[in-house]
Design brief:
With 525 residues, this protein is mainly beta. It has six helices and 29 strands.
């Protein structure tokens, strides 16, 4: 390995916007078989829409909906109405998941599952005269276990992306509603819907639409119809690695004859409502116990509410300085310790650390009292990890707090963290604008084979999308979003060790979870 071939102070890696960390559920939007009420529609494919929910009473089919996480189904508010003026609501609602063909109870190995609806939520009571705010959340009696044919659709929670999603011109709608025969369909149907100017809906429906509604149609007679209400209008969106089906509309209403123009509730206009209900509803009942290195890694954990910080803020990021120069990056893991890579850390020169979004004033810096390089560190290829001990404790806030790591004394918890980290997709975090990106694991045995560089079992080889570049330096973290109640949290998986300055080259990270025992001997909580 030659020093000219590899980065040491900065590697170039492309980072898209936040990726899955802005999504309601990180396991969303990926179907196994993308192959569709729908007027002039086509069969949707048995595994193509695992998020579809059939809303029914014990005796009749009512509407459609979508699974958006393991406890909630998203649908239309008017689906709850039992009377024409919505003065009376349906009771004993059931959400059927994993359904494809309503005429059979046995669809190969993919059986449907019924979940009782225990409560529902609306932004405000539905008004039949306007159809504004036609959105509802149905809470299921028990948690859903994801399977091949039962998975959630993606909901983008960052409302700042609304201007971008408003530019999406083509969607897919799915449902069991009336077809051109005049009967509801047994087999799930799909149709392509184009976004239309709101004035078009006014011309056909004599309805003035608001910014929280979408006007859509196909131009060929295909349409959503009675029975499709509550179903999704979705489109594929890339997070930089995976194309995910993301819901942007809910079937609301259209002409009585169907076959033309329809109105859809704009999901992005209601993400605050969705986030508030889903992430704060009976959250203490749902939370599992996790044994962390430092429980302060959960934002506002004691208050039981979500932090107000923007989703792209990473309050555990650290810059390590030698005088006025950044020598490496790192991650805060407790009140007194920062984890980084060892290669660029000087032996006997004073260091200081700056965290998160704070300004670079002298009061913001934390002096490093001692450096603990791994005792078996030899080079970039072996045990490239170091622990920096700070002279004073860090006081946690929304802007500064540690990243989540498992307890060094709990082996089962370490195994759980490693299992999640072993998934193919992780998030690489860098510095500056657009500083995070979904990246993919590469085969370690082939990572730097051309340089005769062996990648050990305590290292991770990552590759990133060829369409992007980003700021990642030595010690920059590789993380995984952590779903834990209403906390916006991350677990630390790796620290950037080495890579090439060449565009789109693979990069090697130190596998932090391989060193939890060593960390436990130094970090005393």
């Amino acid at each position: 390995m030659t020093s000219a071939a590899y980065w040491v102070t900065l590697i170039v890696l492309v980072l898209l916007k936040q990726g899955s960390t802005s999504l309601l559920d990180e396991d969303c939007g990926v179907a196994s078989d993308i192959v569709g009420r729908i007027m002039h529609g086509t069969p949707a494919g048995i595994l193509a829409n695992p998020w579809m929910a059939l809303i029914k009473t014990p005796t009749e089919f009512i509407c459609a909906g979508t699974l958006i996480n393991n406890r909630f189904v998203l649908s239309a508010s008017h689906c709850l109405c039992k009377s024409s003026d919505c003065g009376e609501k349906h009771t004993q609602l059931i959400a059927r998941l994993g359904e494809y063909n309503r005429s059979t109870d046995n669809e190969s190995l993919h059986r449907h599952e019924d979940f009782n609806v225990v409560s529902f939520y609306e932004p405000k009571p539905f008004e039949t005269s306007t159809s504004y705010g036609d959105i509802a959340l149905l809470k299921l009696q028990r948690s859903v276990v994801y399977k091949l044919h039962i998975r959630p659709i993606c909901i983008q929670l960052d409302s700042r992306h609304k201007s971008e999603t408003d530019a999406i011109s083509k969607f897919t709608a799915v449902g069991w509603g009336k077809t051109e025969t005049g009967n509801t369909s047994d087999v799930l149907q799909k149709v392509v819907i184009n976004r239309l100017d709101k004035s078009t809906c006014y011309q056909f429906l004599w309805e003035n639409l608001t910014d929280s509604q979408i006007c859509g149609g196909s131009g060929n007679g295909a349409d959503t119809c009675n029975g499709d209400s509550g179903g999704p209008l979705y489109s594929k969106v890339s997070d930089g690695v995976t194309w995910r089906q993301t819901q942007f509309g809910i079937v609301s209403f259209g002409s009585k004859q169907c076959g033309g123009i329809g109105v859809y509730t704009d999901v992005m206009s209601h993400v605050d409502f969705i986030e508030r209900v889903v992430l704060e509803s009976d959250i203490t009942v749902l939370l599992p116990t996790i044994d962390f290195l430092d429980e302060g890694c959960l934002d506002n954990a004691k208050l039981g509410r979500r932090a107000k910080t923007p989703p792209e803020t990473f309050p555990w990021l650290a810059e390590v300085y030698m005088e006025s120069f950044v020598v490496t990056y790192g991650v805060l893991i407790s009140h007194r310790f920062v984890l980084t890579t060892a290669e660029l850390i000087p032996e006997e020169i004073p260091l200081k650390v700056l965290f998160g979004e704070t300004s670079e004033s002298i009061m913001d810096f934390y002096e490093v009292s001692s450096v603990h390089k791994h005792p078996e560190f030899m080079s970039l290829a072996r045990n490239d990890i170091a622990l920096l001990e700070l002279e004073r404790e860090v006081e946690y806030s929304d802007l500064i707090r540690p990243i989540c790591l498992p307890s060094p004394t709990n082996k089962k918890e370490q195994e759980k963290f490693q299992m999640k980290a072993d998934r193919a997709e992780l998030t690489a975090v860098g510095w500056g604008i657009r500083r995070s990106s979904m990246v993919h694991r590469a085969n370690s045995t082939e990572c730097y084979q051309e340089d005769l560089q062996e990648i050990g079992d305590k290292q991770i080889c990552m590759e990133h999308p060829k369409s992007i570049t980003s700021n990642v330096g030595s010690g920059s973290p590789l993380v995984k979003p952590l779903s834990h109640g209403n906390s916006r949290a991350f677990t630390l998986v790796g620290l950037a060790s080495f890579g090439r300055m060449e565009n789109h080259s693979r990069d090697v990270y130190t596998n932090v979870l391989s060193y939890v025992d060593w960390l436990g001997t130094l970090v005393k909580m």
